[in-house]
Each structure stands twice: as C-alpha cells, then as structure tokens.
Design goal:
- This protein has about 400 residues and is α+β, with helices and mostly antiparallel strands.
- Helix content is about 45%, strand content about 20%.
- It contains 11 helices and 14 strands.
- Strands 3-4-14-13-9-10 form a 6-stranded antiparallel β-sheet.
- α6 packs across α7.
Length: about 400
C-alpha cells in the first residue's frame, strides 16, 4: 500500500501563512482595533460635533479628522511621502474613470434586465484596487497607532529611568562628582550611581547591561535596585560585588550579562577601594598628565554564580581626576569605522582637567564623541561619571 502523499506546497504555505489565525482575530481587527486606532489619533478633538450632520457629511468629517490627525503625527518627510502616494493613487483612479452610467447593484435577471443606480463607471478591476488601497491604509493606520503608543510608553519609561539616577553635580568636603548618561535609543542599559554614606564616604558606580533598548533597561533597573539594597548592608566592595553577581545570575536571563565598576571613595584620605566586574577600566588622570587604568576585579556579572572578585586600591591626590565610563564612549566609530578609543578620551580629560567644572568636562567628552562620529548614529549608550578630589577646608587651615 502506497503512503498517502503529503500536502501540496500551496496547502503547506497556506497553513503556515494562516497559523494561529482565528475568526475572532479578524473580527477584532475590524471592530475594536480599528475603533481604538481612530480614538488614539483623534483624542482631544470633539467628534460629537458631527452627530447632527447627515450620514454622508458625518462620514466625510470623520474621514477628514482622521486624515489630518494621522498625517500630523508622521515626521515631515514621511508625511510628504504619504501625501505624494495619495496623490498618485488619486491620479491613477482618475485615469480609470469612464464616465457616469448605470452601476449594477444586483444580479442580472432573464432577458437582460439589470437593476442599478446612476453612478461613476470605472475600468474593470478598479473596485478591487479601491478595496486593496483601503485595506493597506487600514493596516498602516493600525501599525502607526501601535508604534506611537509604544513610543509613548517608552518615553514614560525613559522619565522613570532618568528619575532613578542622580541629577547634576554632587559636591561635599573633599570630593565632587558628576554623572551623565545618554541612551542610544529612548531607553538604555547604562547606569551610574552616586551614593553618599553616613560616614562621609561616597559610593560611585557605573554599569553597562549587554544590549540596548527595553530589555537592557529592565535589567538596569534590577541591577540598580539590588545594588542599593546591598550598599545599605555596608559590605566591602569585593563582598558586595560577589553577592550582586549571585543575584544577577539567579534573576537575569542566561544570555545577558552586566559589566560594573563599583568603588567607595574616602574624601579625607583620598583612598578609593574598587572592584571592576568586567567593566572598561576607568582612567585616573594624575598631576603630571599621565593616566592610570583601574582594572582590578573579576569577570562580568551574570556569567557564573561562583565568580569571585578582588579589591583594588588607589589614592587620589587633590585636583586629580577619575573618569568612569561605558564602552559606548571609546567604541563610538566615525564614518570610516575608526573608534574614538581610550586615547581620545584621555586626551580630552588631560586638556580640560583644570579648565572648569566637572559638568563642563563631561560636556567636552560628549561633544568630542559626537564630533568624532559625525552624522553617524550612536550605536551604544554613552555614560561617564567624573570624580575629582578637592582640598578639605580644615586641612587647608592647618
């Protein structure tokens, strides 16, 4: 007995193409989703003002309102392309117009009798084009509504993310710090933190979640929450990062990891104890303009739950500058593919180290990166945290 042949290619394609499609999906598309899209684009307008108009004028006003509300939410370039497409479609339909005549509205009867009404006549197939054009515009409308709704949600997430990190310059006797972060997308995976402790010391940290966008931003929020909880336990840097790695390994996806540089600075002695968990080594610019890389630590967070970390120590002298940054700065490429690199960052830091405030130095770094990349869009988030030791007034009196 021969085995029954499998489904034809056409049937197999149809099955794949309509996979998971249900009648409820189609009904929801033309009812609830279409209505929600209309309400999304026309919110803030008084659509009830058309309620007393005849049905054909009411339909025209709703269509006009939706058209302007939709097109004005597009960027100017896309708005122009969309308008040109509508004009070309209108010209094409005008070319298919054949005059005014009897438009059949029912099946043909015996003896050639037909029922119809006077109306516009078009070439054969024009009504199929009408319906296809209307369906394509409906899909565009729904997709743009979904994307704009998602964009609004991302902008809210960006505001929440920005509220989680310190603002502006932190200054206390013996220390001043400044942090800045710019995501490549609406939200990003870079984070920095400046946490003053009760004993006068200051915690500084910069983290970089692998990837960009919403997934990285969610992991960033998780990292920051766990980090601040562990800081409250007054752990030493190596112990804190070890426990942080264990929590990240347990709760983050297996294919995600996080680099982190964590330090505790004592403004009185200038001593900085730190741990680098696979992060870009910060640059310490000394008095003579030389730079020192702070790389003691271990591997990135989330790779192995049994990872161990070692603590590095360095003493910062008055007016020496520490720059902790993410790889988005040094790996930013110009149109020829040449990265900004650590040497470019070191040169900017040396040039502006004593010129002004930390915020102006941070602005100079970001400006240099932007000039290096030119018109090329940033491929990664930019984050930099600057720390400079200042003299304590009581020490100057002595």
């Amino acid at each position: 007995m021969k085995p029954r042949p499998g489904p034809s290619r056409a049937r197999a394609f149809f099955d794949v193409f309509t996979k998971d499609l249900t009648a409820d999906d189609l009904q929801r598309l033309f009812t609830r989703e279409t209505r929600e899209a209309y309400e999304f684009f026309t919110r803030g307008t008084d659509a009830k003002a058309f309620a007393n108009l005849p049905w054909h004028l009411r339909l025209f006003e709703h269509t006009r309102l939706l058209f302007f509300a939709f097109t004005l939410k597009l960027t100017p370039a896309r708005r122009m392309v969309y308008t040109i497409a509508l004009l070309l479609a209108f010209i094409g339909v005008a070319n298919l117009f054949r005059g005014i005549g009897l438009v059949r509205i029912g099946p043909a009867l015996p003896f050639g009798i037909e029922f119809g009404v006077p109306g516009p006549l078009f070439s054969q197939g024009t009504w199929s084009l009408f319906i296809a054009f209307a369906l394509m515009n409906l899909l565009v409308l729904l997709e743009v509504a979904d994307r704009l709704s998602l964009k609004n949600d991302l902008e809210i997430a960006r505001d929440i993310q920005q509220a989680m990190v310190p603002k502006g310059l932190y200054k206390a006797p013996g220390v001043e710090t400044f942090g800045f972060s710019r995501p490549a997308n609406t939200v990003g995976g870079d984070v920095y933190d400046i946490l003053p402790l009760d004993d006068g010391r200051v915690v500084v940290a910069v983290g970089d979640v692998a990837g960009k966008g919403s997934p990285a931003a969610l992991l960033m929020a998780l990292l920051l929450a766990i980090l601040r909880t562990l800081v409250d336990e007054r752990l030493e840097p190596a112990d804190l990062v070890t426990r942080l790695n264990l929590q990240v390994t347990r709760h983050a996806p297996a294919n995600r990891f996080i680099t982190l540089w964590f330090g505790i600075y004592d403004p009185v002695s200038g001593c900085l104890t730190y741990v680098s968990a696979g992060h870009m080594p910060p640059l310490l610019v000394r008095h003579d303009g030389s730079t020192e890389r702070l790389s003691e630590g271990g591997i990135a967070l989330g790779m192995f739950d049994h990872a161990r970390y070692t603590t590095g120590r360095v003493t910062i002298q008055p007016d020496e500058l520490l720059a902790i940054y993410s790889d988005g700065i040094t790996e930013a490429e110009n149109p020829r593919g040449v990265p900004f690199d650590e040497a470019g960052l070191a040169e900017i830091l040396r040039t502006h180290r004593l010129d002004g405030t930390l915020s102006s130095i941070g602005a100079a770094v970001v400006q240099a990166v932007e000039q290096h990349t030119g018109d090329k869009r940033l491929a990664d988030d930019l984050t930099i945290l600057l720390l400079r030791r200042s003299l304590i007034p009581s020490a100057v009196a002595v």
